[in-house]
Amino acid sequence: MNRISSTATRSDHQRICTITEALIDQKAADARNGARRREIHTFHQDDADPLQRMLNAMQPGSYVQPHRHADSKAEGFVLLRGSVGFVAMDDNGHVEDAGLVLISRESGNIGLDCRGGTWHTFFALEHDTVIFEIKTGPFDAKTDKQFAEWAPAENTTEALVYLAELEDRIRRRFQLGRREWEIPS
């Protein structure tokens, strides 16, 4: 495994790589200890690969600004550990109940496929949540995501307030317990 940024590592396998409990444990620990509380581990060789495959480890309270990918860039994921709240929005940021999805073993929803062009965000509902994510490449950081102008930017207090509102809505909708993290004062 090679560190490729402060928030990501890349597999150095030549032919095959197994996804082990040890790898999942390591990425969950990296997410716990990182400032973003999220950590990626990529399996594709480089950003030019037409099929991007990765582990995405997340901790509660980690904010992914709502975004969409180009119409031709679908995205999907399968839950490996924990649980995820997924929220799909319209072009104005409005969320209907049909756009709220609970991904958990208990719910029977263990994965999700999202068409390109769909505004969305997702977040961990449990500590050490890890998903296997796949999306169309190549990856270009400048064009991979269009961030929603109606949503707060990452690393702001407003972002945590917005995330708390979304998580609380998911928790009410699916009758889950209270949110475990607090908005810092």
Folded structure, characterized:
The protein is an alpha+beta fold and 185 residues long. The model has no long low-confidence stretch (mean pLDDT 95). A 7-stranded mixed β-sheet has the order 1-2-3-4-11-6-9. The chain has a 3-stranded antiparallel β-sheet with strand order 8-7-10, covered by helices on one side. The chain has a two-stranded antiparallel ribbon with strand order 5-12. It starts with a strand and ends in a 12-residue tail after the last helix. It has helices at 21-33, 157-173; strands at 2-5, 8-10, 38-42, 51-58, 67-68, 75-81, 84-89, 100-103, 111-114, 119-124, 129-136, 146-147.
Protein traits:
single chain, 185 residues, alpha+beta, Jelly Rolls, seven-stranded mixed β-sheet, 16% helix
In the CATH hierarchy, the third-tier topology is known as: Jelly Rolls
For the largest beta-sheet, the strand count, sense and barrel status come to: 7 strands, mixed
User: Strands across the major sheet, in which order?
Assistant: 1-2-3-4-11-6-9
Helix content: 10-25%
Principal-axes shape call: globular
